[in-house]
């Protein structure tokens, strides 16, 4: 992407595995984007500034204000951005400021949100939620953010009221790649009918999930069931159990889903089968919108 004017400020999404950096113009438009594989997980706190300056490079000639979200604000990140405590405003009134050596550079990091009872935390998802609310003024309901650790978040009057995290994505990865089921689960492929059948099983009887899992391996050994079908069945069993545990969040609620298409589609199909009409928003678009909303508060604060 090319641009013909200089950036005014920079937006950063710095996660465990990588950094995404956007140059933002006077009118709020994205002028360009750069990425780095130097994620939080491989950096010591004193290394963040060096990596950032290297990636931003010439952008820093005109843009010295940075608003960042993600694991960059964790305890192992550039600087810890203390959690807000739910219920709380989605857009923070205060951000953490990183210590820097470069003259004029000002780095502001959006805090995550914690919940004390039951204990839960999010860091990064709050920015996507803020972006969704910035583009859907007055929206109330439940936002699902599928991924390794899927979040179900009750939002009302611009606040995160409560939320629940489900480790469904991580469980799928562990079972399909590390357990005995790794011999039976395909790396890709899909069968929606099989997925929905399995989802129905554990949505109605979640306590039977453990008993259904080994049957995936047995089905291949005895019936030579193909690995793509078994992949869909495993996903259905896990997401069905998740939907059973989160039913108070989605049943009869206004539901939005923020995520990439690949991880969103099973949730959309599963919720549609329960008669839930879900609106999907792109995760990257919502992240940028949320960072812009935080920057606007920074300018007015």
Number of helices: 9
Cα-to-Cα separation, first versus last residue: 32 Å
- Name the strands of the widest sheet in spatial order: 3-2-1-4-8-7
Helix content: 25-40%
Rg from alpha-carbon coordinates: 21 Å
- What does the main sheet amount to? 6 strands, mixed
Low-confidence segments, given as residue ranges, are none
Task: Give the full name of the CATH homologous superfamily of the largest domain.
Answer: 2-keto-3-deoxy-galactonokinase, C-terminal domain
Number of strands: 15
Order of helices and strands: EEEHEEEEEEEHEEEHHHHHEHEH
Query: Structural class per helix/strand content?
Result: alpha/beta
Identify the overall geometry.
globular
Mean pLDDT equals 95
Fraction of residues in β-strands: 15-25%
Number of spatially distinct domains: 2
What is the second-level CATH architecture of the largest domain? Answer: 2-Layer Sandwich
The CATH first-level class of the largest domain comes to Alpha Beta
The CATH topology of the largest domain turns out to be: Nucleotidyltransferase, domain 5
What structural keywords apply?
301 residues; alpha/beta; Nucleotidyltransferase, domain 5; six-stranded mixed sheet; 37% helix
Can you tell me about this structure?
The chain has a 6-stranded mixed β-sheet, covered by helices on one side. The radius of gyration is 21 Å and the shape is globular. The chain is an alpha/beta fold and 301 residues long. The chain is built from 9 helices and 15 strands. The model has no long low-confidence stretch (mean pLDDT 95). It folds into 2 domains: 9-123, 2-keto-3-deoxy-galactonokinase, substrate binding domain (Nucleotidyltransferase, domain 5); 166-281, 2-keto-3-deoxy-galactonokinase, C-terminal domain (Nucleotidyltransferase, domain 5, 2-Layer Sandwich). Helices cover 37% and strands 23% of the residues.
């Amino acid at each position: 992407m090319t641009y013909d004017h200089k950036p005014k400020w920079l937006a950063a999404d710095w996660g465990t595995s990588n950094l995404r950096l956007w140059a933002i113009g006077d009118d709020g438009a994205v002028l360009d984007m750069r990425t780095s594989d130097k994620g939080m997980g491989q950096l010591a706190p004193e290394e963040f500034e060096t990596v950032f300056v290297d990636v931003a490079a010439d952008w820093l000639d005109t843009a010295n204000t940075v608003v960042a979200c993600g694991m960059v604000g964790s305890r192992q990140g550039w600087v810890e951005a203390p959690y807000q405590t739910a219920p709380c405003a989605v857009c923070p009134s205060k951000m953490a400021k990183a210590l820097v050596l470069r003259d004029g550079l000002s780095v502001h990091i959006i805090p995550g949100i914690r919940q004390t009872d039951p204990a839960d935390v999010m860091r990064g998802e709050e920015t996507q939620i803020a972006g969704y609310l910035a583009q859907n003024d007055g929206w109330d309901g439940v936002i699902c953010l599928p991924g390794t650790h899927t979040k179900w978040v009750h939002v009302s009057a611009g606040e995160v009221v409560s939320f629940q995290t489900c480790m469904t994505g991580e469980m799928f990865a562990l079972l399909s790649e590390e357990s005995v089921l790794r011999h039976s689960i395909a790396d890709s492929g899909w069968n929606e009918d099989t997925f929905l059948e399995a989802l129905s099983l554990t949505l109605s009887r979640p306590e039977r999930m453990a008993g259904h899992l080994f049957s995936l391996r047995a089905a291949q050994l005895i019936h030579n069931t193909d690995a793509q079908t078994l992949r869909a069945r495993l996903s259905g069993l896990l997401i069905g159990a998740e939907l059973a545990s989160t039913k108070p969040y989605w049943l009869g609620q206004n539901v939005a889903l923020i995520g990439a298409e690949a991880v969103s589609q099973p949730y959309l199909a599963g919720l549609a089968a329960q008669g839930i009409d879900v609106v999907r928003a792109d995760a990257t678009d919502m992240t940028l919108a949320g960072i812009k909303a935080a920057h606007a508060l920074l300018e007015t604060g």
